[in-house]
Design brief:
alpha+beta, Aldehyde_Oxdr_Iron-Sulfur, metal ion binding, about 15% strand, 2 domains, 5 helices, Beta-grasp_dom_sf, DNA polymerase, domain 1, Ubiquitin-like (UB roll), about 170 residues
């Protein structure tokens, strides 16, 4: 079917996606912002909310440095559209300490020197806490398997696993 040129809308040039209002609930606070629909949650956190704890590693979902929680579940924020998080609770590394005290997993990472350059550490910690909450830290093999989405280029895995075991064992009463 041919388009009747006299009734077709005039093309006035290429237009990109427009910014739209969105409200993000992050770490218990509400942030009304305007974003283009294609903005990732990672970029919204870092560039629009100045929450720079979450790191951009590969920007392809393979390294885990950008791990945050959406409604308590681990997500790769570089692969998650910010718009899709409206109406959901987003938690980042900045939101896990309580009353000025480090989260037990943060403290265990410090105690076990579970980082070297530290770039992957926020994502590692967010995944490690979720790992325990999910009940997937029964054995060392479980920890290795369920943390495999978080890459540490410095190879601090033995210390990361020791930190996870410490928090797991403290939660189990010893």
């Amino acid at each position: 079917m041919a388009i009747n040129q006299s009734t077709a809308p005039a093309v006035t040039g290429v237009r990109g996606p427009e910014r739209e209002p969105v409200t993000l609930d992050v770490n218990g606070s509400t942030f009304p912002i305007e974003l283009e629909p294609r903005v990732s949650l990672l970029d919204a956190l870092r560039e629009h909310l100045d929450l720079t704890g979450t790191k951009k590693g590969c920007d392809q979902g393979t390294c885990g440095a950008c791990t945050v929680w959406v409604d308590g579940r681990r997500v790769l924020s570089c692969l998650t559209l910010a718009m899709s998080c409206e109406g959901h609770q987003v938690s980042t590394i900045e939101g896990i300490a309580q009353d000025g005290e480090l989260h037990p997993m943060q403290q265990a990472f410090v105690d076990h020197d579970a980082f070297q350059c530290g770039y992957c550490t926020p994502g590692q910690i967010m995944s490690a806490i979720a790992l325990l909450r999910e009940g997937n830290a029964t054995t060392d093999a479980d920890i290795a398997e369920h943390m495999s989405g978080n890459i540490c280029r410095c190879q601090a895995y033995p210390n990361i696993h020791a930190a996870i075991r410490e928090v797991r064992d403290a939660d189990d009463g010893g």
